[in-house]
Amino acid sequence: MTGTPGIADLGPLNRAKEQKAWFFTDWAVSAFQTTVAGVLFAPYLISVAEQAACGFVSDSDKGLDCDGTISLLGLDIAPGALPSYVITFSTILGAILYPLIGALADRTARKPDLLAGFAWVGATATALLFFLNGENWLFGSIVFIIANLAGGASMVINDSILPLISEEHERDRASSIGWAYGYAGGGLLLAANFAVVTFHDSLGMSTEMAVRVSMLSGAVWWAAFTVIPWLGIKRRPPRAVEAVEGGLVARSFGQLGATLKDLRNYPVALSFLLAYLFFNDGIQTVIASAATFGEKELGFETGTVLAVYLVVQFVAVGGAVAFGRAARTFGAKHVVLAGLGFWMLILATALVVPSDNFAAFLLLGVAIGIVLGGTQALARSYFSLFIPAGKEAEYFSLYHAMDRGTSWLGTLTFGLVYQFTDSYRPAIFALVVFFVIGGLLLMRVDTAKGIEQAKTPR
């Protein structure tokens, strides 16, 4: 209630309205994350690069062996490793740009405009992938980098909005629902694209055209649904920012410097972020490489990989719920550690899973779905315990910047191992080192001490 008798407090109602609009950010961007980045782009880019390297003239030729390479800046690159290098370069750029973007967002009242602007830039770049054909792998690589960077920037700002539209007791619920919206939205569009790719002959399209149309649909979905949070979230003046000199960009660098300096006062939060850097790198690389592994190593058609990825989307929702319930009994840290052990088991299984065995591939996908939703959901809620009151936006921006901007060692490792072994099996198994290091670092995180540090004024 407000201080004026007889006047109802409309705050909860207004926040609920904004939260509903905010949920659609995940719903919108998931179209790019699943259909494009998760499933279609990497295998399709490899096919285009193989055409450039090997000179295929028809679909029937693509089953032939070819040891050709493509050249960039004097370097010879195996077509199968190209998507890993593209993602690596994109995420290195993100590691540089995202913290600055997060600091910039904290210093402006136009967060919804920034969120939508970056989303629409990403959607436009994604739409340009419709023109990726023939041998123009370099064009496709460049526009994907732009789309991936813009999508990550949009989500950095999205996370910084959460503390503004929810009270502390509402945050877990709002974040979880947003997570569910993302899986649901991505899953629904992926189901439609699965139908397009599977029945492309009936629709009068080649497989290539079906893939290009599906990627275009992801761009349209992303752009259209972003209108909802853009219109539904209020513009608020910045709060609790550091008093630094200069223009907006200079002040953003100053804010970033102040945040990083302040982080030293919360060593447990810093320790968790270091652990998260490693195990999240492994998770993101598995997500980015799963479709390539399914198509190029196990020999499944694009439609089959889409079907399995669709199963992963919906299983991940149940996995997040199950892990959340387990965390109430065993604690988030222990459940995340168990999840990391499960990830290592999955990678060991991928090393020996038989080719052209759909049942084995489907079971592997179900296993990934269970642990995917759980580890990602709990990692975010666990980190929230170590954030000092009043600094949620800047710390969540840093967390999300690490999530989007530092996951490059895994893709680089995956690409290099494939480059030297010419097999995706050792490439995918090599990622186990990221889960081992991340798990060992996470074991050293003292939960009680981290909560105490967050509550102690500094």
UniProtKB/TrEMBL annotation:
The keyword Transport applies. SUPFAM superfamilies: MFS general substrate transporter (SSF103473). It is a multi-pass membrane protein. One of its GO terms (cellular component) is plasma membrane. It comes from the Bacteria. Residues 268-458 form the Major facilitator superfamily (MFS) profile domain. The chain crosses the membrane at residues 21-46, 82-101, 113-132, 138-157, 178-197, 209-231, 268-291, 303-323, 335-353, 359-383, 404-421, 427-445. InterPro entries: Atg22-like (IPR024671), ATG22/LtaA_families (IPR050495), MFS_dom (IPR020846), MFS_trans_sf (IPR036259). GO terms for molecular function: transmembrane transporter activity. Keywords: Membrane, Transmembrane, Transmembrane helix, Transport. It is found in: Cell membrane. It holds the Pfam family ATG22. This is UMF1 family MFS transporter. It comes from Nocardioides thalensis.
